[in-house]
Amino acid sequence: MRRATLRCALTLAGVLACTTAFAQSGSGTAAPASDDAAAEKPGLRALLHDPKDGKFDMSRWLLERKGGFLPVPIIVSDPAVGYGGGLAALFFHRPAGATTTRTTSDGRQQLVPPNLFGGMAMKTENGTHAYGGGAMLHFKDDRWRYTGGVAKASVNLDFYTPGRFTEPLAIGYNADGVVSFQKIARRLGEENLYLGLSWTYMDLDLSFDVAGDAQRFTPKERAQTTSGLGLSLQYDTRDNSFTPNSGWLGQIEGNFYDDAFGSDTTFQSYRSHAFAYLPMGGERFVLGGRIDMRWANGDIPFYRLPFIDLRGVGSARYADTRAATLETELRWNTTPRWALIGFLGAGRTWGRHNDFGEAPSQVAKGAGVRYKIASVLGLYTGVDYAWGPEDETLYVQVGSAWR
């Protein structure tokens, strides 16, 4: 699902990303006590505090309480859509009799996460608004996974011309419609290697702030319905998928849009990315690195072009048929609960009007603060402030900023 298109997405993607991250986490994590093992039902204070240090912690609330609920406030400050806000919610549910752990090939006990359901609604000052819901379900002791979501959105964005010889021109447009993402994945063997099959569907009504701007695009570039099937392969050795301290994740994926699948245009989009984490000084410091390559071929709608995805850079501000991003982040765990982070990244797009060597790089940097809100899950939450080529932006983070 392309975040820029649609900040329907703005947070539905966040909700699904959180559920996906939780489902992939748990390596080496002890399972929560079952209801049968509990001597007595804990009170609200006990559910919201860690018995080890007495600090505010939502681990027991999310994992031990039936129907655990995690509210996530939405604060939007993306330069592409302006300031705004809303609310997302995650609901945790473990079916009766479902297993809580599985044994990996090397004998480790790994947490099998509960099913998760999410919903969100948001609105920004430029008139963008969206609402939607999603879920992640687990079957056969977590051998099969389903991830899916549907959102209704009306998004006001600008598409920027390359500006190779003149200043870039901002073409204002509105995309109003439905976005759906459905994926099923199967574990291969007993390790964290997953083969996935997905379906991405967008049915949008496009309109331009200046009616004549529609003529700048071909009919295929203005295609309103895109529907495609995708294949993905992911390998994950991270110790924790919410806020990792060590290990790496690698994934390659391809999506194929064709009229046979109900698409108005034929094109292909690909992504290859890797995240790596190196602990230093015990886990006092964690150095992370990210590389992200995206490309597309065929009759690509202008709103589906690959783009630079960096904190501090507006969604879809820099888009072309090829996009590459490098980013590094250092987390300093100042206490067992609190952490400070700093990050620096650069991205580049090219393809339609220039080659890689001619394309300028866009650089963004920033800093943030984190609090470990669920120690059993290794989940941190906090805020980032980023400086980009044109704007300064505030982000609320739940888990890692890298998706």
TrEMBL record:
Q: Spell out the GO cellular component terms annotated for this protein, sorted alphabetically and separated by semicolons.
A: outer membrane
Q: Does the keyword Signal apply?
A: yes
The coiled-coil segments of this chain are none
Tell me where it resides. Answer: Membrane
Write down the InterPro entries for this protein, in alphabetical order.
Bac_surfAg_D15
Main subcellular localization, coarse class?
membrane
Residue span(s) of domain Bacterial surface antigen (D15): 140-387
Q: Which Pfam families match?
A: Omp85
Keywords of this entry: Membrane, Signal
- UniProt xrefs under Gene3D superfamilies: membrane protein fhac: a member of the omp85/tpsb transporter family
Q: Which domain of life is it from?
A: Bacteria
PROSITE patterns with a match to the protein in the record: PROKAR_LIPOPROTEIN
First and last residue of the signal peptide: 1-23
Q: What is this protein called?
A: Bacterial surface antigen (D15) domain-containing protein
* Source organism of this protein record: Lysobacter soli
Q: What is the lineage of its organism?
A: Bacteria, Pseudomonadati, Pseudomonadota, Gammaproteobacteria, Lysobacterales
